[in-house]
Specification:
- With about 200 residues, the protein is of the alpha/beta class.
- The chain has one domain: Alpha-Beta Complex (DHBP synthase), CATH 3.90.870.
- It contains seven helices and ten strands.
- The protein has a ten-stranded mixed sheet, with helices on both faces.
- α1 packs across α6 (about 120-130).
- The chain is globular.
């Protein structure tokens, strides 16, 4: 059975934190699109998420955190990359960096990892109360359209542990993704933010 709760419910953080820490799978609203969320240190939960989405294990999940200092624990951020991160985070931007040793551990040995700090009040509060990053990916079956409002998440009712109702996402469009593993940086996915504008800061 899937618990459904509003972002305005006074117990939403307490309940969601417990579910995620216990290895559950949450559906959460962000300013871009709805996302699945699992504990970044729980490999079993990550594997279950891949199964739910029918997602290839070759496609990485995104690490989401609330603090740029936490980011540096998991990935190696160059000075040039840090300039972009500080300018556009929190925001609708996912940056791919080389992993640190800890990053390799949580990502099952990957050499690179996409990271985002969202600009969404609920998500930032949830991440702070959780006290650790989450792994996330858009709410959809692999290669289908992402859920942009609460109604589009309900196909996973009865499959995930909790669905958090944030109504419609502010931007209703995916984040821009830039690969910053090596220079020159590469735009992997065009999204909410203007990639050309972003690259001016390199």
């Amino acid at each position: 059975m899937t618990l459904k709760i509003s972002v305005r419910d006074e117990k939403v953080y307490e309940i969601t934190v417990k579910i995620v820490k216990d290895g559950g799978i949450a559906i959460v609203p962000t300013e871009t699109v709805y996302g699945f969320a699992v504990d970044s240190f729980n490999v079993k939960a990550q594997r279950k998420l891949y199964e739910i989405k029918k997602r290839s294990l070759k496609k990485p999940l995104i690490l989401m955190t609330s603090d740029i200092n936490d980011v540096k624990l998991f990935v190696k951020v160059s000075e040039k990359a840090l300039k972009i991160a500080k300018r556009f985070w929190p925001g609708q931007l996912t940056l791919i960096f080389p992993t640190t040793e800890l990053g390799k551990i949580v990502s099952s040995g990957r050499n690179d990892l996409g990271v985002r700090i969202p600009n969404d009040k609920f998500m930032l509060n949830l991440l702070k109360k959780l006290g650790r990053p989450i792994f996330t990916t858009s709410v959809n079956m692999s290669n289908e359209k992402s859920a942009k409002n609460i109604w589009e998440t309900l196909g996973f009712d009865g499959i995930v542990d909790i669905i958090i109702d944030g109504r419609r996402c502010e931007f209703s469009f995916e984040s821009t993704v830039i690969d910053m593993v090596q220079f020159p940086y590469t735009v992997i996915r065009k999204g909410c933010l203007d990639a050309n504008e972003l690259l001016k800061y390199t």
